[in-house]
Amino acid sequence: MGSEYEESRDIISNLPDELLCHILSFLPTKFAVGTSILSKRWRYLWASVPILDFDDELWLNPSTLVELEERIIMFQNFVDGVLRHSEVSCIKKFRLGYRDNNLDSVYSWICIALERRVQELDLHLLIDWRVELPPMFFICKTLVVVKLSCALFLDIPTTVWLPSLKALHLKSVEYSDDDSIQKLLSGCPVLEELVIEREERDNQWVVNVSNPSLKILRIFFFTDGFAHPYEQEDQDYKVVVDAPNLEYLSITDYLSKDYFVKDLPSLVKAFIDVEQDSEEFEESPHNGGISYHGPIYELLGRISNVKCLSLTGVTLDSLSGTIGDYKLPTFHNMTRLEFLFIGGFNWDFLPNFLHSSPNLEALVIETGYTNELIPEGWLMPLQVPACLVLHLKEIEIRRIVGEDYELEAVEYLLKNAEVLQQMTIDCHESYMDQEFCVCKKLLGLPRGSRSCFVVSSKGIETDPENIKAIFDWIVPTNIHEVANKAFEEIKSKMVNPSILRLPNFEKVVEVACDASHMGIGVVLSQDGHLVAFFSDKLNGAKKKNTPHMILNSMWWCKKLGIGNIISVTRNLFYIRIMKPCDILILKRSLTLDKQNGVVFFSYLFSI
C-alpha cells in the first residue's frame, strides 16, 4: 500500500516543466513562488513562469500582526526579488496592483517589464501622485494588450510607435493636453479594441478617436458630482469618432454635449446610453415650439446602418419632448432592437422606432420599474409599422409588472405581428409570482400570427390550477422510504413534463445514446433542454447487433472528426457537436451503415 501511495502522490510533480509553468501562470505570483517549499522539484520552477501578477492587496492583510509600513516594504522587496531572479526573457503578462506612493519603484518595475519584451501590460495604481510612463513604453514593439488604470499621467511624445498593440484600455487616466488620445492612437496601426473610461478632470475637452483598424470602441464618461470652478463655462465636452472599420460601438456618456461620428459602414452592434440637460433648449424656427437634444438624433443618424441597436431609458428620455426639426433616421439594416431600463413614458417612443426599422426581426424591451408616475395608457400608432407585418419574429419583454399601458402595448404587438413566432414574458423580481398570470392573460388575446407562442421566462409551463390536484395527493402511510421517494418523483414527472424545443444550430448540440439488449434510445439536447428523441425496442435480430451499435457509432464519430465523445459509461455515451455542418455530415454518413444499427441517427437529425 505504501508503494501505491508513493507512486500516486507524485503525479503532478512528474509533469513536464512547460505544463507545470502553465498551471502556475493562473496563480498570483505570490502563490506561484510559494510552491517552492514543496520539494526540490518545485524550488525554482516559478522562475520560468511567463506571467507575473503582483497585487499588494494580498500583502496588506489587516488581520496580520505586521505593521502596514512593514508589509509595504515586504511587498516591494518581493517584487524586486522576483524580477531579479526570473529567468523569463519574454514576459507574456505583467500585472501590477499598487497603493503606495513609491513612484521610483513603480517606474523601475515598468522599465524592467518593457526591457523583457512584455506582451500584456496591466497597471492599476491607487496612489496619490500621478506616475509617468517611461519613454520606451511609446516605442515598445512587443506590446499587444495595454490596460492603464487610475494614477497615471500620459504625456505623449512626438514619436509613438506600437506596431503590435491590438487592445488599449484607459481608465481614469490624466492626459497632458487635448490631443493626447489621438496622438497615442496615431502610432497604433493594428489597434482593434479601445476602451476609454473618463473623469471630468482628465484635461480632455474633445475625445478624438481616429483609427482605421479599430473594430471595438467603448467610451464611459460619468460625473463625479463635484463642481470644478477652474472649468471654462463656454467650453463643452465633445466626442469625435472616425473609424471606418468599427464593428461595435458603446457610448455611456452623461456629460458630452456633441457627438461627431463619421460614417461607420462596418458597424454591427451599438449600445447608446447618453444624457443631455433638458434645460438647454434651442428655438425651433418652423413650429414656434422648442426642440433639444439634436446631437443625439444626429448620432443615431450616423449609425443608422447598424444591425443591432441597444438604447437605454435615459437616452429615450433625452429624445422625448417636442422633437421640432429632428426625426429618427431609417434603420434599413437593423434586425434587432433593445430598449433597456425604460420607464413607463418611454413606451410611447416604441412606435417611432418600429416605423423607422422596416426589417426588424427581434425586439427586446426591459423595463426599469419605479414608483414614479405611470402613464394612463399607451399611445397606439395610427398605422401598423411594416416590420410587424413582414419581419418581426421574436419579442422579449423583461421585468414587466402588468400595468395597463404595458398590456395595451403587448396586445397591439400580438395582434399586428403577422409573422411572430415567439413572445417571452419575464416579470419584475417583485412580481415573479404573477408571471404565469400575466402570460395567461396574454394567451386569450388575438394574434396576427397563427404560429406564435407566448411563454414565460421559465419556458412553457403547466397551469398551476390544472395540476393542483396532483400536488395535493396524499402520500400513502403504509409504504417504506424508497417507495415514498418514487411516489414523489412520479408526481414531479407528471407536473413537470419534458417539452421539446426548436433547435438552435448556432449553439452546441449534445447527443446522448443508450443501448441494452431490450431497446435503444437517443436524445438530442441543447443547454440542458430536450430537442428531439428516438427510442426503439429490439427484436431477436437486432439484439445480436446491440454490442456493435454503440462501438460503431463511436467509431464513425471519431473517423468523421465531428465533435468529441465527452463521456462513456457502459452502454451510454455523449457526443458534443460544435458546428451545424457537423450535424449534416453526421446525418449523411451514418445512414450509410444501416445494418449495424446506426440508422437511428438519420431519424434523429431529420427534424
UniProtKB/TrEMBL annotation:
Stretches assigned to the F-box domain: 9-62
Record-linked InterPro entries: DNA/RNA_pol_sf, F-box-like_dom_sf, F-box_AtFBL13-like, F-box_dom, FBD, FBL13/AtMIF1-like, LRR_dom_sf, LRR_FXL15/At3g58940/PEG3-like
Organism annotation: Vitis vinifera (Grape)
Protein name: F-box domain-containing protein
Superkingdom, taxonomy of origin: Eukaryota
